[in-house]
Design brief:
Blueprint lengths: L4 H9 L6 E4 L3 H10 L4 E2 L5 E3 L12 E4 L15 E3 L1 H15 L3 E9 L7 E7 L2 H10 L15 E6 L6 H4 L6 E5 L4 E5 L5 H14 L6 E9 L5 E5 L6 H5 L5 E4 L2 E5 L2 E4 L3 E5 L9 H6 L6 E3 L2 E2 L6 E2 L10 E5 L9
């Protein structure tokens, strides 16, 4: 697909001068690119299996938010929302932009949120094809071609091969997630864990949407035939995805939602389920997604001969994950 001039101009504004830009590639092309670049392995049934070690989960201690006058009094600063200054952010931005020079980049123009009244246009720029596929799975994809009027409300730059220097960049480790609400920009580096991409935007929605009388919720949700909505709250790994995948109810989503005057709606276009000890008998709807082309299996062990996933094997981590589009769940909305 030809790269629109508005995308090229935006990359230039971000001080990024890549060798090649792959714009809004769909799943088959992203598979080809990921496999050609040795970013993953093909499993029996079609999923792409990737490795994220040493980071097999999120790095909350490595997330910082730029503290400026606009947000100084509207964010609960502390161990969760750690402050940094714009000078430090801009310095890291320059170093990451230099890292991107001459490299291939993948760009996806997507949305966070199904409700058109509140959705946030999100541009995701990555150096890994599989991260571009992850974004395409997890955010809401445009209906048809991206409109010429598309303007990203927020941009995520994920350069996972870039490693921060704690002393030089004002970070705690080589991993970094810097959020600048004033510049509508998120920088991610030093970690291959896909979940950082989606959770960074969830943090932004938690800041933006209450101003529009929308309550952001970390929960799963489903709907009965009578229109009643069930919401399941809980931290990561407590069973939200499992409880919401009910064959007798319509799945709204498994992790991130908004509650507006019109009801509960999903922020995401996909699910990010824990895979450890998954079986066809215990969770048939979720197991079915592991036999689909387009699903990403993070840190799942494969049989060396059959290439069948072994979901009981936690040799890399217990936090094995599967990323797949909502449409892979038979009774999912919309």
């Amino acid at each position: 697909m030809q790269v629109p001039e508005r995308v090229t101009a935006h990359l230039h504004d971000l001080q990024m001068r890549p060798k090649t830009v792959h714009y809004n590639l769909k799943r088959p092309r992203l598979y080809e690119e990921a496999l050609d670049r040795d970013e993953g392995t093909l499993a029996a049934g079609g999923p792409l299996v990737t490795r994220t070690a040493p980071h097999t989960g999120r790095s909350p201690k490595d997330r910082f938010i730029v503290r400026d006058a606009a947000v100084a009094d509207t964010i609960n600063w502390g161990e969760v929302n750690q402050p940094t200054d714009r000078s430090t952010f801009n310095h890291l931005h320059e170093r990451m932009a230099a890292h991107a020079d001459g490299r291939d980049l993948f760009v996806q123009d997507l949305y966070a949120g199904w409700d058109a009244d509140y959705r946030l246009p999100v541009r995701v720029i990555t150096e890994k094809a599989w991260h571009s596929l992850f974004a395409r799975n997890m955010f809401v994809r445009p209906d048809g071609p991206v409109p010429d009027t598309y303007d990203p409300g927020f941009t995520v730059v994920d350069l996972c091969e870039f490693e921060a220097d704690a002393e030089r960049d004002g970070t705690h480790s080589e991993a970094v997630i810097f959020v600048d609400i004033g510049q509508n920009l998120i920088l991610i580096g030093g970690t291959h864990y896909g979940g950082e991409i989606k959770k960074s935007i969830f943090s932004v929605l938690n800041y933006l949407l209450p101003e529009h009388d929308v309550l952001p919720m970390h929960c799963s949700a489903n709907e009965g035939d009578d229109g009643s909505t069930a919401v399941f709250f809980g931290l990561s790994g407590t069973g939200k995805t499992t409880l919401s995948a009910d064959a007798d109810r319509t799945l709204i989503g498994d992790d991130e939602h908004g509650w507006s005057d019109q009801g509960v709606y999903n922020f995401e276009g996909g699910c990010y389920a824990k895979m450890i000890d998954l079986t066809r008998e215990s969770e048939p709807e979720i197991f079915g997604t592991t036999e689909e082309f387009g699903t990403i299996l993070e840190n799942v062990i494969l049989d060396p001969e059959t290439r069948e996933p072994d979901f009981s094997d936690d040799a890399i981590t217990q936090n094995t994950r599967g990323s797949y589009p909502l449409s892979y769940i038979p009774n999912a909305a919309p």
